[in-house]
Structure formats: structure tokens, C-alpha cells
TrEMBL record, chain A:
Name of the protein described by the UniProt record: Carbohydrate ABC transporter membrane protein 2, CUT1 family
SUPFAM superfamilies, per the entry: MetI-like (SSF161098)
Source species of the chain: Palleronia pelagia
Membrane topology, from the record: Multi-pass membrane protein
TM regions (residue ranges): 12-36, 85-111, 118-142, 154-177, 198-223, 257-278
Automatic annotation (TrEMBL), chain B:
Organism: Palleronia salina
Membrane topology: Multi-pass membrane protein
Alphabetical keyword list: Cell membrane, Membrane, Transmembrane, Transmembrane helix, Transport
One GO-annotated biological process of the protein: transmembrane transport
Database matches in CDD domains: TM_PBP2 (cd06261)
Protein name: Carbohydrate ABC transporter membrane protein 1, CUT1 family
Main location: membrane
Gene3D superfamilies documented for this protein: MetI-like
A Pfam family: BPD_transp_1
Subcellular location: Cell membrane
């Protein structure tokens, strides 16, 4: 900001600040509104009488005698057994991230070190796979999964998510490995390591920043997925996101839309914490492919 | 790297992609040209005291046996692609003959499920992508001019709509847009129409789905542009200023050329992601007003009877759509690589 070249005229500065305020409200307000509203009764969150009821909780006070109520959370987590879905999500995400990173680091390392043409074609095919909407593959899975009795189980969803994750993981880790100097592993090999030993003892210790960033995005892909988990998992094994979708179908008619609101807040909370701790890695991951290339 | 060690390193990843991406594509293609066997009809002659009657009934055993023997069903070639649920060739040609003008033709064309889905998908893709890029760019410029101390929190808040689960993010927005929600009631007051409801109006529903789309993906464009702005060459900027370039000229001739490759990257990712628009339609329960190709596949596959071959045909048409959309990019990547 020191240089005069970057000082802006006052009206422009004011316009930018105004715009920034509008954007911050647009980005944050829906979440604040929903978190606040999730502790109210339905009559307040969807208020026919007065929108301000959602803020002051008029009906919540009338119905429960208190300003806040945990009814929505109780209904979702205990009555509708949302905890089961949360547990399934935990299993699916943890397994997907671990397996796809194991496969991905091995593959991406080889792709970044190979000088042959087929490595390039491998990446192009991965890019094409990345471009295809995952839901187009589901009708290819279903008959086989039904025939072999694989449909509905968590491991099936995990391995499908791992495969769908691979193209992205390979591309991202490939660009990270390209930044690790080749001399490192090559000098290890001159000293008598095999390729795998060089990878294991020289590359693995220095690859963690890239791997953690990629892990965050693999996690997001598994956590946010709806298309695959909704169609491949049976009702008992549902993860959180399809479970919320099923709330919309069944409980909304019973007047329990607040269950869904509470569940939505519960799903958002871990993401919130994740951005708080890993903001730097998320930003660097989003820009990895773009700015360097 | 030696061929042999390359092979072993990429093996796990390749097997996963081969089994769960490549083979399923073949399976989708195969299923889309077969359809379920029709039920076997048998004729039974009942002869009673009043003469003989021929009745037809479904032969359950024979049907089951046939389905068992040929699980893929019967071969129909491109039949599924041309039926009413997909390209609807005969319906389209009939409409073409009967409709008075082009407007009437398109009106009725959009009643056919596949054309309805593709119309929304394409509109969504080509409206949301440029708006995302523009909004992302403006946010990036604004954040870049903010004081350094508040940039961290600004980025944190901006990331929220992008990181949030799409189904959940669109639900959060949809509840606010509900006629009894805060934005919904605000719109009713502003439009002075107490019956205004997003659920009841097609243009409003389309608009809101696209508003969600821009809200959801603008942060991505923002982050990428913001990072790009950090790497603009400061010396070039100052040199341009010494040479008497105005603010606009500095942006036009220094900043924009620097950001152009980044824009291509954002556009590519956004085209890919917007073409698969799906979750907001589920959250908004918008199917009466807007459907997308992904939603059509989901609709075929969920529910009691899974219409596999219909879903497979839509899937394959979607894959063709993605291929057309991305062909310029693939060609460019290839040229870039061969030039190196």
C-alpha cells in the first residue's frame, strides 16, 4: 500500500467497501439466520404472522416457555436417529480419505517423475473422468451391485467414492510432487535405494503439506456427496446428506421440518470448524492448479 | 522413471478407475441399448358348455425364466434414445408439423422431459458461469483493497457458501425464500403481492436456482482471482504508471492479461460443475418448474421401479454433452503439451 500507484480515489474506495459489506452479509447471513432459527419452533422459523418472530421467538416462548428450544435437535438426533447417519458419514469419510490418498500419492508420484508420453495421456484420461458427472456412472453400478449383493453397504460406497476421487487427487498431488525437486529422490537412488525406498524414505517425509491439502478436498468430496450415497446406500446405512433429503420427503409432511433445520446446522458445524483451522490450506489448494499454470 | 516401477506405482489408482469409472461407462452404454423384456403373454382356450373362449394372461413363469436367461433384456438399439423420455424424435417431428410458429414449437418442445431438462441445464450453465466469474472478480478486487488485518476473516466468511454441502446450502437458502421465510416475505412486500411464492412461479424458480448457483460458486472464482492478484508484477504496474498510464489503462494492459489464463481455468471448472447441477433442484423441490439432466437420471434411479435403461440413455447423452462442452479445452491442453 506504500506506493502511490495503488492508492485509490475516495469514491472508488467507498464503493468497494460498500460492496464488501453487501457480500459479507450475503455470505454469512443465511448461516446465522439458520443457526438462530434452529433453536426455535416451526411457527417462528416459518412465521406466517410476522418475520420478526424468528428473531424474538414469540411463539417459541409461548409454546415452550423459553427463548430457545432444543426440540429440533432432539427430534433429529434421538427420535430420527441422526447419530447413526453421523457415524456412517464418519466411517465413509475417514476410509475414503485414507484409501484415496494412499492410491493417489503412489500414482501421482509416478506421474510426476515419469518423462514418457503415456504419463501425459494418463493425466488427460483422468481429466476426462473428472469432467464426467458422477451420477452418470450410477446406472452402470446398480445392476452389478444388485447381482453380487454389494448394494447398500458402506464399503461399496467407500470404494466408489475412492474411485471417483482418484482423478482429482492425482491432478492435485501431481502438481505438488512436481514442486519437490527431482534431485532429492534421484540422489537417494544413486546411493543405492530402489525407487520405492527413495519414495518411502525421501519423498514421504517432505510431502505432508501437499497431502494434507489434498486430504481436505477428498474429505469435502466424500462429505458433500449426495448423488452416490443416496443411490448406493440402503436406508439403514445412509450418511448424513441423504438422510436430510429423506427428512424432506417424510418428516416435512408431519410438520417436523425443524428436524431438518437442526440436521442442516449439525452438518454445517464440522465444515465451519474445518475452514477455521485449515483456511490457509484450502486457499492454497484452490489456487494450486490455477496460478502456477 | 522405468516402465516397470511406473506400472506398479499407478496400479492401485488405475484399478480403481478402471473398475469404477471405465467399466461403468461401458455398462451404461450397454444398458442403454437394451430394455426390460416385455411380459410373456399366453393365450388360454377355455371351452365350456357355451362354446370356446380365448383369454390372454401373463405367463409369470415364462417371463421370469426369460428375464433370468437374458438379464440384460431385449436389444432395442437406439430405441430408448429416441423414445418419448429422451430425444422423442416422433413427437418432435409431429410438433414441428403442427405448431404454428417457432415460438409455439419451442413452448411445446419444453414439455418433453428431456428437452425440459436440457433447456434448464444449458441456461443454468451459461448464465451462472459468467456471473460467477464477474462476481468473483469484483470480490477479489474489493478484498484486495481492504486492510490487511481484516482480509483473513473476510476470506473465512467468503469461503462458507462454497465449502458448504450443496444440498444443505441450497436448503438454507430455500427456507429463507419460502413464502413464510424472511426473503420470501420481503419479496411479497416489495412486489406488493401477498400470493407471490417461489414454489408457484417458473421464472422466479429459475432465477432463484441461478442465484443459488452464483452464491455457491462465486467464492471459488474469488479465491483464485485473489491469489492471482497477489502475483501481479508490481514493477510492471509502477513502470506503466511512470509512463503515464491511467488507472483504467493499468488494469486493461497489465492486470487483465495477467488474469486471463486464470479466467480460462475458472471457466473450465465452472462449466464442468454447473453442467451437473442437481442438488439445488432436490432442495428447492423444483421439479415441476425446472429439471436438469442429472436430476432426470436420479429420478429414474430412485423410487420403487428403477428404470435402468432409461437412466443409462440419459447418462450417456449427458456424457456426450460434457464431451462437447470440454472438447476445446482438451484440444488446447494437448496443443500446449505438444508445444513443450
Amino acid at each position: 500500500m506504500a506506493s502511490k500507484a495503488f492508492r485509490k480515489p475516495l469514491p472508488l474506495q467507498a464503493l468497494l467497501i460498500f460492496f464488501l459489506v453487501v457480500w459479507v452479509v450475503m455470505a454469512a447471513f443465511p448461516f446465522l439466520w439458520t443457526v438462530w432459527g434452529s433453536f426455535k419452533v416451526e411457527g417462528d422459523f416459518f412465521s406466517k404472522a410476522d418475520w420478526a418472530n424468528a428473531i424474538f421467538g414469540t411463539r417459541t416462548r409461548a409454546e415452550t416457555g423459553d427463548l430457545f428450544t432444543g426440540q429440533g435437535y432432539y427430534g433429529a438426533w434421538v427420535q430420527e436417529e441422526f447419530w447413526r447417519a453421523a457415524l456412517n458419514t464418519l466411517i465413509v469419510c475417514a476410509a475414503t480419505v485414507m484409501i484415496s490418498l494412499t492410491f493417489g500419492t503412489l500414482g501421482a508420484y509416478a506421474l510426476s517423475r515419469s518423462t514418457y508420453r503415456y504419463a501425459f495421456w494418463f493425466l488427460i484420461i483422468a481429466l476426462i473422468f473428472r469432467a464426467m458427472p458422477p451420477i452418470t456412472l450410477v446406472s452402470g453400478y446398480l445392476p452389478v451391485f444388485f447381482d453380487w449383493n454389494l448394494w447398500g453397504h458402506l464399503p461399496t460406497a467407500i470404494i466408489v467414492l475412492v474411485a471417483i476421487n482418484q482423478p482429482f487427487t492425482l491432478w492435485m498431488l501431481h502438481s505438488f510432487f512436481n514442486n519437490i525437486p527431482k534431485d532429492l529422490d534421484e540422489s537417494a537412488m544413486v546411493d543405492g535405494c530402489t525407487r520405492f525406498q527413495a519414495f518411502r524414505h525421501v519423498i514421504v517425509p517432505v510431502m505432508w503439506p501437499g497431502v494434507i491439502t489434498t486430504a481436505l478436498f477428498s474429505f469435502l468430496l466424500a462429505y458433500n456427496d449426495f448423488a452416490i450415497t443416496a443411490l448406493v446406500l440402503s436406508k439403514e446405512n445412509q450418511t448424513m446428506v441423504p438422510k436430510i433429503a429423506s427428512f424432506l420427503g417424510t418428516t416435512q409432511t408431519k410438520g417436523n421440518v425443524m428436524f431438518a433445520v437442526a440436521a442442516v446446522v449439525s452438518v454445517t458445524a464440522p465444515l465451519f470448524v474445518m475452514i477455521m483451522f485449515f483456511q490457509r490450506q484450502i486457499v492454497s489448494g484452490l489456487t494450486a492448479g490455477a496460478v502456477k499454470g | 522413471m522405468k516402465h516397470k516401477s511406473f506400472f506398479w506405482f499407478v496400479l492401485p489408482s488405475s484399478i480403481a478407475m478402471l473398475l469404477f469409472i471405465f467399466f461403468p461407462i461401458l455398462s451404461v452404454l450397454l444398458q442403454s441399448v437394451f430394455t426390460e423384456h416385455e411380459q410373456v403373454i399366453k393365450e388360454v382356450r377355455n371351452c365350456g358348455p357355451f362354446g370356446c373362449q380365448t383369454t390372454t394372461s401373463i405367463d409369470q413363469e415364462a417371463t421370469a425364466a426369460l428375464r433370468e436367461a437374458e438379464p440384460l433384456g431385449r436389444f432395442v438399439g437406439l430405441g430408448v434414445y429416441f423414445d418419448r423420455g429422451h430425444l422423442a424424435l416422433s413427437e418432435v417431428s409431429q410438433l414441428w408439423r403442427e405448431s404454428a410458429g417457432l415460438g409455439a414449437f419451442f413452448d411445446r418442445l419444453l414439455n418433453l422431459p428431456f428437452y425440459k431438462a436440457i433447456a434448464f441445464t444449458l441456461t443454468y450453465t451459461f448464465v451462472v458461469t459468467p456471473l460467477t466469474i464477474v462476481l468473483g472478480f469484483v470480490i477479489a478486487v474489493a478484498v484486495n483493497s481492504a486492510a490487511r488485518a481484516i482480509r483473513g476473516p473476510l476470506i473465512f466468511v467468503s469461503l462458507l457458501p462454497f465449502i458448504i454441502t450443496p444440498l444443505v446450502g441450497s436448503l438454507v437458502l430455500f427456507w429463507m425464500l419460502d413464502a413464510r421465510g424472511i426473503i420470501g416475505s420481503a419479496m411479497q412486500v416489495l412486489a406488493d403481492d401477498p400470493d407471490l411464492s417461489v414454489k408457484a412461479s417458473t421464472p422466479l424458480m429459475w432465477t432463484m436456482l441461478m442465484v443459488y448457483g452464483v452464491w455457491h460458486s462465486a467464492p471459488f472464482a474469488f479465491i483464485v482471482y485473489y491469489a492471482g492478484l497477489q502475483t501481479v508484477n508490481q514493477d510492471t504496474l509502477e513502470a506503466a504508471m511512470v509512463d503515464g498510464a491511467s488507472r483504467w489503462e493499468r488494469i486493461r494492459y497489465v492486470v487483465i492479461p495477467h488474469l486471463l489464463p486464470i479466467t480460462t481455468f475458472i471457466a473450465l471448472i465452472q462449466l464442468m460443475d454447473n453442467f451437473r447441477v442437481f442438488e439445488p433442484i432436490v432442495s428447492f423441490s423444483a421439479q415441476a418448474h425446472a429439471t436438469s439432466l442429472s436430476w432426470a437420471i436420479y429420478n429414474d434411479l430412485s423410487g420403487e421401479t428403477r428404470q435402468l435403461s432409461s437412466a443409462a440413455a440419459t447418462s450417456f447423452l449427458t456424457i456426450i454433452g460434457v464431451a462437447i462442452l470440454l472438447s476445446p479445452v482438451i484440444v488446447r491442453t494437448y496443443r500446449d503439451f505438444t508445444r513443450k
